[in-house]
């Protein structure tokens, strides 16, 4: 469907509830962590991933087969959501799923930049966003990056990419283009969002997504010690930081951690912040942010059962399932111990 | 070979000069060999440190890459890697350690800041940063290991060559020259003895001839005296 027409949360949430109940639970993960990659693929073939495993089985094998099947299944599931939803609900879902459009734009640009084969680039796409196949195929057939920017002129990414293209030409580094794509995605998350009782919590979720992204980036900048202007990486729309506040906090990691601790996310992230204070690595902290976001949306689904929130909760749970299965398969391939893999999983 | 040498005084002097030169060369080469061995031991220690650092860095890099591939996906990691075309620059110069020319490798643009890695900061994660960090660290150690291990191999080759030269002088050239010298000296002494003997012989012969001539003269005189008395 499209944003035209009436919103249909009753229908979509009913379908989503069925989909959510089919997601892997504790029991399945316990089995998966004991399996090798080929057994995992076989296990997936007997579940919701059958279509993708069978379709990709002739071209890929091992963990690559699992990863491509996961991505394709994710795309199919999210595409269905956009197919089912109409009116305002479509717009709310599409806001979040445009991150896959951003992913696809970046993948095509990277492919052209590194002279990769079209087939390889196509394999890496996740067609879960708002772009239909015609748009994605047109991007794939673009002969150079300039043409990609041109072909995106009618989309939300057009203006920002056009502005960043000059920087790219000057530096011959993809950073300006990639940042422009991601900034556009985050910039449009809260764009013209009409807030009522049901969407207030969805807005809070999107704000948390922006806050967490700002927190991650600020910590990464503080960690790197590089002479980079933090304001250039600030995403507007969150409640935790202001551009100038983040710029000064990025210079001092301790102050940044203290600011997060004192925020509304402080309680949820307290353990991760403790760990962050004692360790150099940001990885555990990033994982804690993912868990906090997932827990938050999981709770949202029960408050307004006929709104965007159960759908957002499903989207995050599905993404997490894909991440978990991939982590198990790649972890097993790399010879990681069961305990080590289990530590990385996020299961609610 | 001693038999090929003409036992002349000129050759003896030439051989004595060569022995002196070879002994001096032997001493110098021995000093060079000892010096090289000392330098080599220092480099060996450094090479061992670098090698163990390389092993540790490789382990870390592989582990962070595996974790990034597991948590972010292989596609995301490959994508981040594809966002950079620029390769690190490596220039080589040379330095001289006791006559051995060893490379000095300078690298630039190996370690990169977040905004130089090609991938956008807003859409990536700390796992990819850490994998990139670990591989940059590994690459720097590989470059250092290449420098130290090449120097070590060149030193080792030079030590071997010097050792062979010292041994050749000590066990082949100098013994041969000394043997030749002894041979010539013996021959010259023998020639001298022969000469003395010959001179003595001639002297004896001349003395004998003189005595005979004298006796003959005395006999003739006696005969002449006797005939005069008659």
UniProtKB/TrEMBL annotation, chain A:
Q: Where the protein is mainly located, per its record?
A: membrane
Record's keyword terms, sorted: ATP synthesis, Cell membrane, Hydrogen ion transport, Ion transport, Membrane, Transport
Quote one Gene Ontology molecular function term: ATP binding
Q: Which Pfam families does the record match to this protein?
A: vATP-synt_AC39
Q: Name one GO biological process term.
A: proton motive force-driven plasma membrane ATP synthesis
Q: Does the keyword Ion transport apply?
A: yes
Topology of this chain in the membrane: Peripheral membrane protein
One GO cellular component term of this record is: proton-transporting V-type ATPase, V0 domain
State its location(s): Cell membrane
- Cross-referenced HAMAP family, in alphabetical order? ATP_synth_C_arch
> Which family, according to the similarity comment?
Belongs to the V-ATPase V0D/AC39 subunit family.
Q: What does this protein do?
A: Component of the A-type ATP synthase that produces ATP from ADP in the presence of a proton gradient across the membrane.
Q: Subunit structure of this entry?
A: Has multiple subunits with at least A(3), B(3), C, D, E, F, H, I and proteolipid K(x).
Write down what this protein is called.
Answer: A-type ATP synthase subunit C
Print the organism lineage.
Answer: Archaea, Methanobacteriati, Methanobacteriota, Stenosarchaea group, Halobacteria
Per the record, the gene is: atpC
From TrEMBL, chain B:
Q: Which topology term describes how it sits in the membrane?
A: Peripheral membrane protein
Asked if the record carries the keyword Membrane, the reply is yes
Instruction: Give residue spans, biased composition: Acidic residues.
Output: 212-221
Coiled-coil spans in chain: 44-71
The cross-references to Gene3D superfamilies, in alphabetical order and at most eight, read:
1.10.287.3240
Gene Ontology cellular-component terms for this entry are: plasma membrane
Q: Name one GO molecular function term.
A: proton-transporting ATP synthase activity, rotational mechanism
User: Cellular location of this protein?
Assistant: Cell membrane
Q: Known InterPro entries for this protein?
A: V_ATPase_D (IPR002699)
Sequence segments annotated as region (Disordered): 205-230
Question: Its principal location?
Answer: membrane
Q: What does the record list as GO biological process?
A: proton motive force-driven plasma membrane ATP synthesis
Q: Which Pfam families match?
A: ATP-synt_D
Q: Which UniProt keywords apply?
A: ATP synthesis, Cell membrane, Coiled coil, Hydrogen ion transport, Ion transport, Membrane, Transport
The record's similarity note reads: Belongs to the V-ATPase D subunit family.
**What does the function comment of this entry state?**
Component of the A-type ATP synthase that produces ATP from ADP in the presence of a proton gradient across the membrane.
Oligomeric state and interaction partners are given as:
Has multiple subunits with at least A(3), B(3), C, D, E, F, H, I and proteolipid K(x).
Note the HAMAP family from the entry: ATP_synth_D_arch
Q: Return the protein name.
A: A-type ATP synthase subunit D
Question: Which organism's genome codes for this protein?
Answer: Halobellus salinus
Origin organism lineage: Archaea, Methanobacteriati, Methanobacteriota, Stenosarchaea group, Halobacteria
Q: Which gene encodes it?
A: atpD
């Amino acid at each position: 469907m499209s944003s035209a027409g009436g919103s249909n949360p009753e229908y979509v949430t009913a379908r989503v509830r069925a989909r959510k109940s089919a997601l892997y639970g504790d029991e399945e993960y316990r089995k998966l962590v004991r399996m090798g990659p080929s057994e995992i693929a076989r296990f997936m073939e007997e579940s919701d991933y059958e279509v993708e495993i069978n379709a990709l089985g002739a071209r890929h094998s091992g963990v690559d087969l699992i990863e491509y099947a996961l991505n394709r299944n994710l795309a199919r599931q999210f595409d269905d959501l956009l197919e089912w939803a109409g009116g305002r609900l479509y717009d709310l879902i599409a806001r979040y799923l445009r991150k896959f459009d951003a992913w696809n734009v970046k993948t095509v640009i990277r492919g052209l930049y590194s002279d990769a084969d079209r087939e390889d680039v196509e394999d890496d796409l996740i067609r879960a966003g708002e772009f239909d196949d015609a748009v994605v195929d047109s991007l794939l057939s673009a002969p150079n990056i300039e043409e990609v920017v041109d072909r995106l002129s009618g989309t939300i990414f057009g203006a920002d990419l056009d502005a960043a293209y000059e920087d790219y030409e000057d530096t011959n580094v993809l950073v300006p283009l990639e940042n422009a794509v991601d900034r556009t995605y985050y910039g449009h998350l809260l764009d013209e969002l009409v807030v009522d009782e049901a969407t207030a919590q969805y807005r809070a979720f999107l704000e948390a997504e922006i806050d967490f992204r700002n927190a991650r980036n600020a910590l990464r900048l503080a960690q790197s010690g590089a002479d980079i202007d933090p304001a250039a990486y600030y995403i507007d729309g969150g409640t935790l930081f202001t551009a100038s506040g983040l710029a000064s906090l990025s210079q001092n990691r301790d102050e940044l951690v203290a600011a997060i601790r004192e925020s509304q996310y402080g309680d949820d992230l307290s353990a991760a912040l403790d760990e962050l204070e004692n360790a150099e690595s940001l990885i555990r902290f990033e994982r804690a942010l993912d868990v906090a976001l997932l827990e938050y949306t999981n709770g949202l689904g029960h408050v307004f059962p006929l709104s965007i929130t159960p759908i957002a909760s499903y989207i995050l749970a599905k993404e997490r399932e894909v991440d978990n299965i991939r982590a198990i398969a790649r972890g097993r391939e790399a010879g990681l111990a069961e305990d080590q893999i289990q530590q990385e999983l996020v299961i609610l | 070979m001693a038999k090929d040498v003409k036992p002349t005084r000129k050759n003896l002097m030439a051989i004595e000069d060569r022995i002196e030169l070879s002994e001096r060369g032997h001493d110098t080469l021995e000093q060079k060999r000892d010096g090289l061995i000392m330098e080599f031991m220092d480099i060996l220690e450094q090479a061992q440190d670098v090698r163990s650092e390389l092993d540790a860095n490789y382990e870390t890099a592989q582990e962070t890459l595996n974790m990034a591939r597991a948590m972010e996906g292989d596609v995301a990691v490959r994508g981040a890697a594809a966002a950079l075309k620029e390769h690190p620059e490596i220039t080589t110069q040379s330095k001289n350690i006791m006559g051995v020319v060893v490379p000095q490798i300078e690298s630039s643009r190996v370690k990169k800041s977040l905004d130089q890695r090609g991938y956008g900061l807003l859409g990536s994660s700390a796992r990819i940063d850490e994998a990139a960090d670990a591989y940059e660290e590994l690459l720097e150690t590989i470059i250092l290991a290449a420098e130290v291990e090449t120097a070590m191999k060149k030193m080792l080759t030079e030590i071997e060559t010097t050792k062979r030269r010292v041994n050749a002088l000590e066990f082949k050239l100098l013994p041969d020259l000394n043997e030749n010298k002894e041979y010539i000296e013996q021959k010259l002494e023998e020639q001298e003895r022969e000469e003395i003997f010959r001179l003595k012989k001639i002297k004896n012969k001349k003395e004998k001839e003189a005595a005979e001539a004298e006796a003959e003269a005395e006999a003739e005189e006696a005969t002449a005296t006797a005939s005069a008395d008659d």
